[in-house]
Design goal:
By secondary structure, the chain is α/β, with parallel strands linked by helices. It has 3 domains: about 120 residues, no CATH class; about 40 residues, no CATH class; about 170 residues, von Willebrand factor, type A domain (Rossmann fold, 3-Layer(aba) Sandwich). About 50% of the residues lie in helices and about 15% in strands. It has 15 helices and 9 strands. The strands form 2 sheets. It has a 6-stranded mixed beta sheet with strand order 6-5-4-7-8-9. A 3-stranded antiparallel beta sheet has the order 1-3-2. Strand 5 and strand 6 form a beta hairpin. Helix 7 runs parallel beside helix 9. The longest helix is centred in the N-terminal third of the chain and has 20 residues.
């Protein structure tokens, strides 16, 4: 191994120790994956180092905040343990930054660049999607491409062998016959876990236009992660199933195909009527039964709010969990005062915001724990 390669390995191992101190389970296999990723990328680009670590060392949405903080601390010289200075050019200055200013050591400005990159991503994660510039939206698209929503699990009728659980009489007897008729130990089994269906109803009416693109990108990430157990519909003045379009691997092509299939984009809102159409045609027949149903809407109802309340109560009886995502909930001082929200909330299990990347990461946790 060359001296430069040893520098990179020492830096990555030190960063992994920092992550473990911060509470991120950076296991040896994840560290090995980061080393392999860095080996195929340019260590001269701090963004490559940042994303190589984020994609390999983080195990879930809860790790992202700790990862960003640890990355900024380690590569800006605030890590609890310092790796000895060597000949590395880009990763090394961040390690040597604790040296006193003016000594000529660690003053090439790369550490601030690394810290600035992590800080900029952190700011973007909490920025309201509806207020982003075109450049920020482009960066957000890359973050959505990396999002992997967790799937809620349910017990199935199929059972598998386990060291705990109910006694499996047939297997226990067969084993006893194999042992000469003597029952030496009891064999157990338990229900096998399977993904629970997730159904997303995305409001594409005029009032939701600033957030519709981000919501559909979240839906695409969910379909990409679990294509067989995720359904997506758009709601406005009509109900449109866009699951097939969102199964396209490329996010931009998937959203373009979905846009072509949606006839009521940026139109009006008749949530009660559209929800009734969903339940009559899809939900009652099995799509919503035992599923996690996520309604993404600001709750503006131009139709009958009482009808919306009735259909939400009907949905609650069918679904396992009902989640309502309202982008306006993330604003300071927000109160659900619209007639649609007041009618819907009694039948909602989780009321969350959907205005930023951080909010979408939180939403993945809510769905995964449902």
């Amino acid at each position: 191994m060359s001296e430069r390669s040893r520098d990179v390995v020492d830096t990555v191992l030190g960063f992994a120790r920092t992550l473990r101190h911060a509470g991120v389970p950076a296991s040896p296999d994840r560290v090995e994956a980061m080393l392999a990723a860095v080996g195929n990328l340019s260590v001269l680009d701090p963004r490559h180092v940042y994303w190589a670590g984020r994609l390999t060392l983080c195990g879930g949405p809860d790790d992202l905040d700790r990862y960003d903080a640890a990355f900024a601390a380690w590569f800006s010289g605030e890590a609890p343990r310092a790796v000895p200075r060597t000949a590395s050019q880009r990763l090394e200055p961040a390690i040597s930054a604790p040296l006193a200013p003016g000594t000529g050591e660690g003053d090439d400005g790369e550490a601030p660049e690394l810290a600035t990159q992590a800080s900029a991503d952190e700011v973007l994660r909490h920025r309201d999607v509806g207020e982003m510039t075109l450049a920020e939206r482009e960066h957000l698209r890359r973050l959505f491409a990396l999002l992997v929503p967790a799937a809620p699990m349910r017990p199935s009728r199929r059972r598998r062998a386990s060291i705990r659980g109910a006694v499996h009489p047939a297997r226990t007897v067969r084993q006893a016959l194999h042992d000469g008729g003597e029952v030496r130990r009891l064999l157990h089994h338990r229900p096998e876990a399977r993904p629970r269906r997730v159904v997303l109803l995305v409001d594409v009416s005029g009032s939701m236009t600033p957030y519709a693109d981000a919501l559909l990108r979240f839906a695409h990430a969910a379909v990409r992660a679990r294509p067989s157990s995720t359904e997506v519909f758009t709601i406005g003045t009509r109900l449109t199933r866009v699951t097939r379009e969102l199964r396209l691997r490329d996010p931009d092509k998937a959203l373009a195909a979905s846009g072509s299939a949606i006839p009521d984009w940026s139109g009006g809102t008749r949530l009660g009527e559209v929800l009734k159409a969903f339940l009559d045609r899809w939900g009652q027949r099995g799509t919503a039964r035992g599923a996690v149903v996520v309604v993404c809407s600001d709750g503006w109802e131009r139709g009958d709010a009482a009808l919306l309340g009735e259909q939400m109560a009907r949905l609650r009886r069918l679904a396992h969990t009902v989640v309502w995502v309202n982008p306006h909930k993330g604003r300071t001082g927000y109160e659900p005062l619209t007639s649609g929200m007041r009618a819907a909330l009694p039948s909602v299990d989780h009321f969350v915001s959907g205005h930023s990347m951080a909010a979408f990461e939180e939403l993945t946790g809510v769905i995964g724990r449902a």
